[in-house]
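Blinded run. Sample ID left blank on purpose so nobody reads anything into the name before looking at the predicted structure. Input follows.
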Amino acid sequence: MIDNTTQFNKLKPASTLTENTILLVDDEPGVLASIQRLLHREGYVVLIASSGKAGLELLKNNSVNVVLSDLRMPIMSGVAFLKLVKERYPTAIRILISAYEDIPGMRDAINCSGVYKILSKPWDNTDLLSTIGAAFHTYRLQRENQLLTEQLVSINHKLNSKNDELNQALLQAKEVTKSKSEFLSNMSHDMRTPMNAVLGFAQLINMDESLAQEHKDNANEILTAGQYLLELINEILKLSHIESEKIKLDFKSTTVYEVINESVSLVRPLLNSKNISINWNYENDSQWLVEIDKFRLKEILINLLSNAIKYNKENGEITINCEVCHGRLRINIIDTGKGLSPDQLIKIFEPFNRVGAEKTKIEGSGIGLTITKKLVQLMGGEMGVRSKLHIGSCFFIEFKLITKE
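Blinded prediction complete.
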């Protein structure tokens, strides 16, 4: 049979075709002409071929969304043609049309060619247009899904790449932090020896009865400044040990009441010096157990209590209470000091940031809370703060509760 493709089809370049292009394949010119006119009126771009071979040539050079093929054609049947279409152009929606009730052929078309729908000759125009419209809709959905999948794959690839970069940066940051901590540790250790010598000689000078009072006052200034500097060196050394993970923890089941009681006893002289009262209903907190390093918990509580005293008002109050929520024990230390602004709350745990206290006569290095929070985190706990200006602050620490005896 003569291929009438060029007789019926005015080809358009692939670049001009849109997502409404359909290929009609049938060996009957009248069928091709009839369907082509119908689809042209509906705004479709229609390509036609009178054989499977001619249809494959058109598919090679054009972007086709839907293929409608006759079942029985010479040389290459509709099933064989659509099977090749499925293999080579899997995104194209495939429709079969036949004048024969060829059940085996239709079954092969469904199983081998993956046809979208089978239409009968003679066809109903409304049914034909409805089927083709639905086929294009399916094509667009599949195409959108494909594009989304490709975008997701691309995004996932970029995320994995960024994740690798972040992991690498994190490793480098850890190395830098470790090197910095080791440097600070060595520097702090080397500075303590001469500083102890300075303090020792200042004490000797101060003990000399023959010195004038002016010189003794000078020696006292050296002692005061030296002791502050030594305290700062010790704090830096402690922070560097924590950051470089050199600090060792001894976890044991610990009664919280016992540690709080010992901590309060140690800060009692400081409480009395500022006439600050402490409220603690210890009977309610005598039964709580946590798995923790007792020595470090005491260090944490002493630091928080000392701050609550230092930054409290004269004749102020400190309240200690414990509460349990979702299997965790929270220890609250509440003061009646000046409180903190929202901006100060953001910076409160930054090292060497005293959030305005450097303008007062209150002594401090600005890294006590940094060390305290890192110790809490090392022991698997959490630390936070709530505060209101001119009312006071509540610093709290949380740890997993073991049991309630």
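Unblinding after everyone has recorded impressions. The longest strand covers residues 392-404.
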